[in-house]
Amino acid sequence: MIAKLQCVVLDCADAVGLSRFYQSLLGGVVNQPDPRWSLGEGWATLHTDGGFVLAFQRVDNYRPPRWPDSARPQQFHLDLEVKDLEQAQEDVLKRGAKLLDVSDGQRSWRIFADPAGHPFCLVRH
Which of 28, 78, 93, 116 is the most exposed place for a label (fewest CB within 10 A)? Predict the structure, then answer.
């Protein structure tokens, strides 16, 4: 091993807004003081209760991915484990997510986009 994962950084138009969206899904603290990062207008962090850190970086002229369009690919996605897929879907939609794919209802996951357009999946536990 030559490195330890410090955080995952998501580009977006509104760093604090997107950090609050993920806080509403995962819990944790937005912009918790941390000597590894200087917080500012274009940067926000989310320290989750499990110790994982997501960071959000404002990018001028941000262009969101368009799943499944290969001209603007998803770049990455997060899989979020949930107990009740139906309830979790209702909750993320209320928080500003957009449903991208529900498929035939037989799969154990559904695909959404966060408010900045990044795809993520809710996966039934």
Answer: 93
The confidence score (pLDDT) of residue 56 equals 93
pTM reported for the whole predicted model: 0.82
**Which residues are paired to 9 by β-bridges?**
55
Give the pLDDT confidence of 45-71 residue by residue, as tens digits: 999 998 899 999 999 999 998 888 888
pLDDT digits (tens, 9 = 90+) for 6-39: 889 899 999 999 999 999 999 999 999 888 777 7
CA of 44: how far to CAs of 63, 77, 82, in Å? 19, 19, 25
- Nearest one of 4, 42, 10 to 26, comparing CA atoms: 10
Task: Report the alpha-carbon distance of residue 102 to residue 100 in Å, rounded.
Answer: 7
Q: CA-to-CA distance for 49 and 60, rounded, in angstroms?
A: 30
Q: Give residue for tokens 């807004």.
A: 17
Which residues does 96 contact at the CB level (< 8 Å), separation at least 6? 21, 114, 115
